[in-house]
Every structure is written in C-alpha cells, then in structure tokens.
Amino acid sequence: MVLPGTTAQPRTFSERKRAEKWFGCVTHHPSPFSVLRASSSPDGAAYSPHKQRQHHRRPRVREVGARAQGVPVKATKTVEKLLEGYPQDVQAIALAARQSLRKWLPGVQESADASAPVIGYSFGPGYRGLVCTLILSKSGVKLGLVRGSELADPHGLLAGSGKVHRHIQLGAASDLRKAGVSQLVKAAHKAWKERQ
C-alpha cells in the first residue's frame, strides 16, 4: 500500500502509526489506512487512532482505606498458621497458654501479628486495647504483660529489663499452674481497665 504523494510503503508498525497520524489526523490528505477503516466504521467516519485509544483506556479505580493513604496492607495471618513453624513442644505450651488466657480473661480477642511471632490478647483495637501477648521462639513461649513493670510480683515470676513491659518464661505447660501466674494476668487486665 503506497502512501499519498510518495512511492514508499510503511514497513514497520511505528511507520504505519506515524502515517495514520500524519495523513489521517493532521493533514487533509486522505490516508489509505483511514479509507480502509472508514468502511468498517458504524457512522462512516474516518478512522482516528486517538479516538480508538480512548475506548481502550483503563478506567481509574478509586482506592480507599489504608492503601489509598500509602500504608502497606499486609495479609492476615491466623494463629494456627503462625504456630505451624514451631516444634511440637512449643506448640503444646502455646496451646495450653491460649486456653488458660481465654479462661482468665473472658471475652478477650486473640490475634496473630502479621510480621512478628506474637499472639496478642486485647479488649479493643490496636495497641491501646492490648493486655498481654504470647511471644513464640524455638525454645519456648513467653507470656508478655503490657506495663508489667507496674504490677506487684510477690513470687518473682516477672523477667525482662525493659522500663515498661515484663514477661513470664514458659518452659512447659505446667508453668502456667505456678502460684501467681493467673493473678498477674488478671492484675494486668484490671490495670488496663483502670487506664481506660
């Protein structure tokens, strides 16, 4: 197919697109491509690549929530999925601790952290509602108490050198039955309610 006023033919895709632009849109010379496309147009109008691109433009989707604010959205992780990567004895300690915490803290919400080996127990959203945690490791489980440094510990169970939080090391499920463990958890819950 010969372009108007020339003896050359468009050989590549980019040459063809330039020819459509120059002869079909910019100048008044009829383009061979516009003549061919006009026969297939519903209204008989000359073909315009600019009009065609408008039909294939992807519609904009308005994003809402955390993604719209630039906050990365992380996939939700279940407690069971989190525990799968730990030895059987650690899983057994964690299971016993989960049962005990649900017994000592009726109505508590359990959730797995998306990026850390931590199971949280809370009575409200975010860090503000957090009362205690289970911190998992290959060697055992720690029962973390939010603001545990403020709690009375007559049995000397609390460990940790932080200024705010403390934890109880659980090497076996039987450690949950030690004197003072349930009292510390309930005291942490009581202190949380007083701060609200």
- CATH classification class of the largest domain: Alpha Beta
Radius of gyration: 34 Å
Write down the CATH topology of the largest domain: Aspartate Aminotransferase, domain 1
Strand proportion, as a percent range, falls in 5-15%
Please report the total strand number as a whole number.
Answer: 5
Mean pLDDT: 77
Distance between the termini: 81 Å
Query: What order do the helices and strands follow?
Result: HHHHHEEEEEH
In DSSP terms (H or I, runs of 4 or more residues), the helix count works out at: 6
Uncertain residue segments:
25-41, 61-75
General form = elongated
What characterizes the major β-sheet?
A: 5 strands, antiparallel
The strand order across the widest sheet is 1-2-3-4-5
What count of domains describes the coordinates? 2
Please sum up the structure shown.
Helix content is 33%, strand content 13%. It has 196 residues and is of the alpha+beta class.
Please, could you describe this protein's structure?
By secondary structure, the chain is of the alpha+beta class. The chain has helices at 13-26, 32-38, 49-55, 79-83, 88-104, 181-195, and strands at residues 109-112, 118-122, 130-136, 141-145, 166-170. It folds into 2 domains: 13-55, no CATH class; 79-195, Aspartate Aminotransferase, domain 1 (Alpha-Beta Complex), CATH 3.90.1150. It starts with 12 loop residues before the first helix and ends with a helix. The model is unreliable at 25-41 and 61-75 (pLDDT under 50).
